[in-house]
Design a protein that fits this description.
The structure is a single chain. With 352 residues, this protein is of the alpha/beta class. It has two domains: 5-177, Rossmann fold; 181-323, N-(1-d-carboxylethyl)-l-norvaline Dehydrogenase, domain 2, CATH 1.10.1040. The chain contains 16 helices and eight strands. The chain has helices spanning 12-22, 34-43, 65-71, 81-92, 116-123, 138-142, 156-166, 179-201, 206-226, 237-248, 253-262, 267-272, 279-294, 299-309, 314-322, 338-351, and strands spanning 5-8, 27-30, 60-62, 74-77, 101-103, 129-133, 147-153, 171-176. Strands 3-2-1-4-5-6-7-8 form an eight-stranded mixed beta sheet, with helices on both faces. Strand 1, helix 1 (12-22) and strand 2 (27-30) form a beta-alpha-beta unit. Helix 13 (279-294) crosses helix 14. The longest helix has 23 residues, at 179-201. The protein is globular and about 60 Å long.
């Protein structure tokens, strides 16, 4: 039995996910741009965002969101966080009962600080909400390189069924019921990728980049667990995996913005030259707000936000981080008895 898939958003990642799904199920890609729709339908390509790559010949595109949503049995949202809610609300009006909705968007909503699945739950409360996330660079996947991803969804039965929708010979999909952790891993790493790009743009070496990535992961895990995510999630594909790919790859939009900032270019000019959204630029301020709200120290993210706000240069931010007071590593929160519990559990198992 087939499941009609609708992917909402014709950017590089939305198009790539639609291409993957078309290997297994009838798939429609909704795009605003008429020329993109014509290209997908007539030449099986998306020259605006994936120039030179062929799409699955069975993939179809449309500009009619209402009709596509009313026929969909699986919905995938690939819209930027800034417009995610209004588009999701339009989709929700036409959905058949119980159709699952997956987000591809790794960002937070301005003003509310909500994750995308939280917006889905508000717009379509009767539907299973989840996220497809992980180390997924669209151009590598559309080129046929092997990759892995995670479907994060509380309903394991639905998540398992969705694995078959997106899995191909070279795209392996796992499941994880830690929706909070998976979404935050994908969202917070964009801010760290900006930092990684900045030090690269400043001409720093691999030691510096490794330090940024490692300390960035510590920040992600601190805030992520404080907000309800599981620690082991941040060591997996949705955490460390996504962080590594985004911080190191020249295909990463967030790393690109950071690199250009490190080179001294104004942020406004960098963004004007880009076709797609670098979510970290808009997430950095929200992350700092959340860190303050939860009492979490996030020096890297704080400095990135200062650069984004124009109160520091990338070089000043790096020097500020290097000048911080020395401390133990790994971090040891006050009154942390985790190690005592682990030792006691080990003793109990050994003597039982």
């Amino acid at each position: 039995m087939s499941n009609r898939v609708l992917v909402v958003g014709g950017g590089s990642w939305g198009t790539t996910v639609a291409h993957l799904a078309a290997h297994n199920e009838p798939t429609v890609l909704w795009c605003r741009d008429v020329r993109t729709v014509e290209a997908v339908n007539q030449t099986h390509s998306n020259p605006r965002y994936l120039k030179g790559f062929d799409l699955h010949p069975e993939l179809r595109a449309t500009t009619d969101l209402y009709e596509a949503a009313s026929e969909a049995e699986v919905v995938v949202m690939a819209m930027p966080s800034a417009v995610f809610r209004p588009v999701m609300e339009r989709v929700a009006l036409q959905l058949q009962p119980w159709v699952p909705v997956l987000s591809l968007t790794k960002g937070l909503e301005q003003g509310t600080r909500l994750r995308m699945t939280e917006i889905i739950n508000q717009a379509a409360p009767a539907h299973s909400a989840g996220a497809l996330t992980g180390p997924n660079l669209a151009q590598e996947i559309i080129a046929g390189h092997a990759a892995t991803s995670v479907i994060a969804m509380a309903d394991d039965t639905v998540a398992t069924a969705l694995q078959a929708v997106f899995t191909t010979d070279l795209f392996r999909v796992y499941t994880n019921d830690d929706v909070v952790g998976c979404e935050l891993g994908g969202t917070l790493k964009n801010v760290i990728a900006l930092a990684s790009g900045m030090v690269d743009g400043l001409g720093a070496g691999d030691n510096t980049r490794a330090s940024v990535i490692t300390r960035g992961l510590a920040e992600i895990a601190r805030l992520g667990t404080a907000m309800g995510g599981r620690a082991d999630t941040f060591a997996g594909l949705a955490g460390m995996g996504d962080l590594l790919a985004t911080c190191m790859s020249p295909l990463s939009r967030n790393r690109h913005v950071g690199y250009e900032l490190g080179q001294g270019r104004p942020l406004k000019q960098i963004l004007a030259d880009m076709e797609q959204t670098a979510e970290g630029v808009y997430t950095a301020g929200i992350v700092v707000e959340l860190a303050d709200l939860h009492g979490i120290e996030m020096p890297l993210s704080t400095e990135v936000n200062r650069v984004i706000q124009g109160t520091r240069t990338a070089e000043e931010a790096m020097m500020a981080l290097m000048g911080r007071q020395a401390r133990p590593e790994p971090d040891k929160p006050k009154h942390d008895n985790t190690w005592r519990r682990r030792v006691w559990q080990f003793i109990k198992r050994s003597t039982s």
